Each structure stands twice: as structure tokens, then as C-alpha cells.
# Entry
Amino acid sequence: MKKRLVLCLACCSLAAFSCEEHRIDCNKAYSTYDINQCAAMELDKARQQLTDYLETVLEHRRDDAELVAAIQAAQQDWERYASAHCQAVYTQWRDGTIRTAMALSCMTELTQQRTHELWQRFLTFMDSTPAVLPEPGLLELP
# Structure
């Protein structure tokens, strides 16, 4: 079942950008297909933002090898947790067509939370020094 969610998330994510002839207005998404595509696009954006912030954290803290290793280990643990948690959400909704959108939105929410946590813990300062990157906010689709 876990592999099915990962495969489903990957397929939706890839399909969101590979289907040029099926343009979706995510503000008016109605069909299950369109809702899933929009959720996949939102997850892709959140994942890209997480990657950008994580890479910046690792670069910014590169002189502290122990901290970098700890952050990388925490990231791997977080990825396992997020996958397992969103698999549980998928399982909760397994009998409905909403299951994929629910799992995708779960992963998007956790990804955005993780990005903010990385920013807050590793890219901001206790004094008035400006943050290394701006505070990540909720992502909006075009």
C-alpha cells in the first residue's frame, strides 16, 4: 500500500506538467482528475521550495559538519514520517475518489511546515540580523 501512495503521488506529480493540452484552472477545478492535478502541482511547488531552503541551510551551515550531518539525518527521518503519515491519510480515505487529493494535500501541508521549520531554526537569528531567506509562506498556483 505504501508503494501505491508513492507511485500515485509521483504519477500525479508528473502528469500535472506533462499534459500540455489539458490546461487546468485550479480555482475552478471540479473533476477528480483536475483536483488531483492541481494538488500535485501544489505539492511540486512546495517540494521545490523545501529543496531550495534545505540547500540554503546546508550551504549556510557548511562549516559545521556535525550540524550538517544532523540536519541531513533529520531530513531523512522527516521524509519517512511524512510518507507514513500521508499514507495513513490515504488509507483513511481509501474507499473514496478523494483519497489521492487528501494524501497530496497532506504531503503539501507537511512539506510547507518542514520548510518553515528549517527557515525558523537554521536561517534566522536571535538578534535583529535579517534572515538568510525570506519567511516561506503558503504557495499559490498561477
In short: The domain at 2-122 is CATH 1.20.1270.180 (Substrate Binding Domain Of Dnak; Chain:A; Domain 2). Confidence is low (pLDDT under 50) at residues 13-21.
